[in-house]
Amino acid sequence: MSRPHDAQRPFFPFGNPFRMISPKGSHLSSKLIAVLNNFEETLADRFRKLDPKETGDVLSLTWMEKAMKSLCETHGDIKNLISTLELPVCDWDDKWIDVYLDISVKLLDLCNAFSSEISRLNQGRLMLQCVLHNLESSCPEQFIRASSSLDRWRHHISSRNPRFENCGSILDGLKESLDLPKVKNSAKGKVLMRAMYGVKVQTLFVCSVFVAAFSGSAKKLLELSVSDTHLWGLSFTNLLTSVNSSIRNRPSSGSVAIFKEQEAVEANVKKLAPLIRSGEGTVEEESVRSSVSSLRGNVDHLSQGLDLLEKEVDGFFQVVLTGRDALLCNLRANGPASTQMQKNIVER
């Protein structure tokens, strides 16, 4: 996204911001076609790289990290495309400003929900580390503490994050924004609108998968038909089909989260918990050691994945936020004529 000093357009333009450009005709030159094709071919390659190689490998934290990183790269590409097209800053009407701000707020809200869930999972990870610390001793009292900590962890991890209550409606609103605005008499505008469609599709797809992974519900997975006139259309359709079917057809394990690192930890806890209840029989030490070792390895794997994913989610948050900053900077650059518009934004 554009930073405030870049003087470039933010994402998700609506209405017709190109009414001042190329008033006669909108024929795409070979140069513009090459620019657009390069963008779409790069996007197609990104979709192919995200397509899982085998069923069950979709929803891992590693895959989610790659998906968010890929999304940030696409947003960077659209910024470069805007620069290549050399689109001048022109006046935007209030309606377009309202729509852009609404969509960027939705994306920021989703990022906040994702970050909130990552923090909640990290809290659970700390609880498990306390369990592992207690189990380093063979003292019966430590086993009692560990058992109590596991109970608290199960209660914590099975609770629902209230941040996700509105995510479904947010995704619905973003899907409504996929319709392309009509851009007349602007070849550059049409190139940008077509490229923007690809950005919006990838953004909605990645966000819908994240909501499914963190909420444990596949209800809001994206369903979308994309025309094969887009160079990335087929690779996206293959990716969408593969990811959605893998999520919906996954064996039910009773896990709250869908991604496999969390499921592995929950399976370890389910096996370990009855072994360390000291009041219910003799502790099988070898079984305990084996289960503790497995849990420690899976907790470390979960911890690493959450840390890397948190970094990528924060990066996307900054991408969206700097786009809003760019919009405000462009409005200020327009001078006194935009004073009322800036006032309206501040009030909102």
Automatic annotation (TrEMBL):
Belongs to the ROH1 family. It is a single-pass membrane protein. GO terms for cellular component: membrane. Keywords: Membrane, Transmembrane, Transmembrane helix. It comes from the Eukaryota. The keyword Membrane applies. It is found in: Membrane. The keyword Acyltransferase does not apply. InterPro entries: ROH1-like (IPR008511). Its main location: membrane. This is BPS1-like protein.
